Amino acid sequence: MATRSRKGKKCTVIGGCGFLGRYIVERLLEEGYTVSVFDIAKTFEDDRVKFFVGDLCQEKDLAPAISDVQTVFHCASPPPSSDDRDLFYRVNFVGTKNIISACKKAGVQKLVLTSSASVVYEGTDIKNGTEDLPYAKKPMDYYTETKVLQEKEVLAANSPEENFFTVAIRPHGIFGPRDRQLVPILVDTARAGKTKFMIGNGENLVDFTYVVNVAHGHLLAAEHLHKDSPVCGKAFHITNDEPIPFWTFMSRILEGLNYPSPKMGLPYLLIYYLAAFLQLLCLLLKPIKEIKPTFTPMRVALAGTYHYYSCQRAKQLMGYKPVVPLDEGIKLTVKGYAHLQNNN
Ligand SMILES: NC(=O)C1=CN([C@@H]2O[C@H](COP(=O)(O)OP(=O)(O)OC[C@H]3O[C@@H](n4cnc5c(N)ncnc54)[C@H](O)[C@@H]3O)[C@@H](O)[C@H]2O)C=CC1
Ligand SMILES: CC(C)CCC[C@@H](C)[C@H]1CC[C@H]2C3=C(CC[C@]12C)[C@@]1(C)CCC(=O)C[C@@H]1CC3
């Protein structure tokens, strides 16, 4: 009993130096957990945290970081904006298999994976999508392709007979202070004068999820992960449960940072096929010059289609509900990015 209770509150966050990972660490510390972080890069100091710097693609690097812990949170991934197919495959697929193997060898009981709602997204409308939707047969990018492989691997690894329980959390459009993808890229796009128009008619509803709600969902999943629990081996959408028109959300952030927001819409299909053509052109020109287009087909699709998800399963099986409402999350985010304010 002593051993189990001692291990009970000990956990490791793989990718814990990232945007979401650090919020999970902060939430775990608030809840009295003993927290270790494993990451390829250490980006913050905290005397309460034990840091292990290593590469999850090397299983031997993992062992010291997960020794004697009950729960592992895996939220490491290359940035979705990368176009390095091999990197995505090595980190998200082979690396995740390493984590499963290392967890089983170390006697870790619980593995909570940060997956993505995008694993069912193929660029067409999804309205109130449930977790029963099939995995994307034609993922729109390498990132999504490897997130599908990763989630399948983790859920299949759930093994009550080995006292090893797994769960996948599928957030969507995570935002908040310290985010590295959404707001910084949006501001760069605005500064380049590329947000004068919106893509589509501006009515498409999308889920944006404040980061503290995502961290909360991860801890709830870990707390409900035990023998005979209906949570084991399942995926759960975690959202703010407040889908919002994509361009309304973007305009709230832009105007909050004193940038002009788009007023007119451009035909979605025109921009989508233009983005697809540009992507092909960049691929052909890559041997001569590396060009990274802002408007990739995936981003255009995300900007111009409906994609919001039901979190009913998380509500029913884990008692999930968002702790920070969308409007408050937007205000906190704008405040957290004052340094990116438009001063012109
Ligand atoms: N940002 C978003 O809107 C969404 C993110 N997700 C998922 O949430 C998770 C966290 O995403 P973010 O916090 O936005 O990403 P992030 O890029 O801020 O954090 C990822 C962390 O993983 C670490 N990492 C990458 N490769 C590694 C390796 N080989 N070994 C050890 N550590 C490594 C990085 O150093 C970084 O600290 C990812 O799994 C992502 O797929 C899911 C849905 C939406
Ligand atoms: C002006 C816009 C077309 C571009 C600025 C905003 C975009 C950078 C972001 C809007 C939706 C975001 C999003 C993700 C990354 C950043 C955006 C494309 C993800 C792809 C991140 C990883 C995931 O798992 C899914 C996310 C969907 C939404």
From TrEMBL:
Q: What is its EC number?
A: 1.1.1.170
Which organism encodes this protein? Answer: Branchiostoma belcheri
Which InterPro entries does UniProt cross-reference here? 3Beta_OHSteriod_DH/Estase, Lipid_A_modif_metabolic_enz, NAD(P)-bd_dom_sf
Catalytic activity, reaction form: a 3beta-hydroxysteroid-4alpha-carboxylate + NAD(+) = a 3-oxosteroid + CO2 + NADH; 4alpha-carboxyzymosterol + NADP(+) = zymosterone + CO2 + NADPH; 4alpha-carboxy-4beta-methyl-5alpha-cholest-8-en-3beta-ol + NAD(+) = 4alpha-methyl-5alpha-cholest-8-en-3-one + CO2 + NADH; 4alpha-carboxyzymosterol + NAD(+) = zymosterone + CO2 + NADH
Q: What is its main location?
A: endoplasmic reticulum
Q: Which UniProt keywords apply?
A: Acetylation, Cholesterol biosynthesis, Cholesterol metabolism, Endoplasmic reticulum, Lipid biosynthesis, Lipid droplet, Lipid metabolism, Membrane, NAD, Oxidoreductase, Steroid biosynthesis, Steroid metabolism, Sterol biosynthesis, Sterol metabolism, Transmembrane, Transmembrane helix
Q: Which SUPFAM superfamilies does this one have?
A: NAD(P)-binding Rossmann-fold domains
Give all residue intervals belonging to the 3-beta hydroxysteroid dehydrogenase/isomerase domain. Answer: 13-263
Which family is it part of?
A: Belongs to the 3-beta-HSD family.
Lineage, uppermost ranks: Eukaryota, Metazoa, Chordata, Cephalochordata, Leptocardii
Q: Which pathway does UniProt place it in?
A: Steroid biosynthesis; zymosterol biosynthesis; zymosterol from lanosterol: step 4/6
Q: Is Lipid metabolism there in the keyword field?
A: yes
Spell out the molecular function terms from Gene Ontology. 3-beta-hydroxysteroid dehydrogenase [NAD(P)+]/C4-decarboxylase activity
| Subcellular location(s) of the protein | Endoplasmic reticulum membrane; Lipid droplet
Name one process (GO BP) from the record: cholesterol biosynthetic process
For this entry, the protein name equals: Sterol-4-alpha-carboxylate 3-dehydrogenase, decarboxylating
Keyword Amino-acid biosynthesis part of the UniProt annotation: no
The source's superkingdom equals Eukaryota
